Amino acid sequence: MISQIENGRVMPSVSTLWSLTTILGMPIDELFNDSKAVRKQARASDQVASSVESPIQRASNRERLRLAAGVVWERLTVRPDDKVEFLKVNYAVGAESCPKDSLFRHGGKEYAYVISGKLGLQIGFSKYELKAGDSVSYGADQPHRLWTIGNEPAVAIWVIVNRNDENYVEIRDGT
Fold first, then answer.
1. Three-state SS for 137?
2. Helix, strand or coil for residue 18?
3. What are the beta bridge partners of residue 139?
């Protein structure tokens, strides 16, 4: 499967992506294009002068990560941050973070603000509908799942604080 992902033949689901980064012991930011080069450059520029590097992340050169079923994450920071992930998340019509019979969980706390469209959110046994203007926060260690509702893509701003992969678990019905 990893070879198929590397060659662009398969797009991983969000839960598969979390699982891979957990097993490899790496932050999810490292999956974004050139993140190692960005970190190396950031360290070098920190040593020279912080005023040289712009703090502005332009939309035109934002790092993007395309996942299975039409989920796209866009990093909203110039460089990776070990303590927080700041993302614009796009869910195409029919997109979901994991299959209907699955939930996943990981460390940290998630905060989201829906810009457009509608998202379904399941946390444990409870299901919610989020629409434009709604926001949510929850402990990511609670089993959860997201999906698009309706015939319009959903776009949200997502912040994940203190995510550590030690607590990652994918939960499927009957397991």
1. strand
2. helix
3. 109
Tell me: the pLDDT tens digits for 121-161?
999 999 999 999 999 999 999 999 999 999 999 999 999 99
Confidence of residue 49 (pLDDT cuts 50, 70, 90): very low
Structure tokens at 65: 């990560």
CA dihedral 124, 128, 134, 140 (to 10 degrees): 10
Left (φ > 0), alpha (ψ -120 to 50) or beta: where does 168 sit? beta
CATH number of 2-172: 2.60.120.10
Beta strands in the chain (DSSP E): 64-66, 71-75, 84-91, 102-105, 109-116, 118-123, 126-131, 135-139, 144-149, 154-161, 169-172
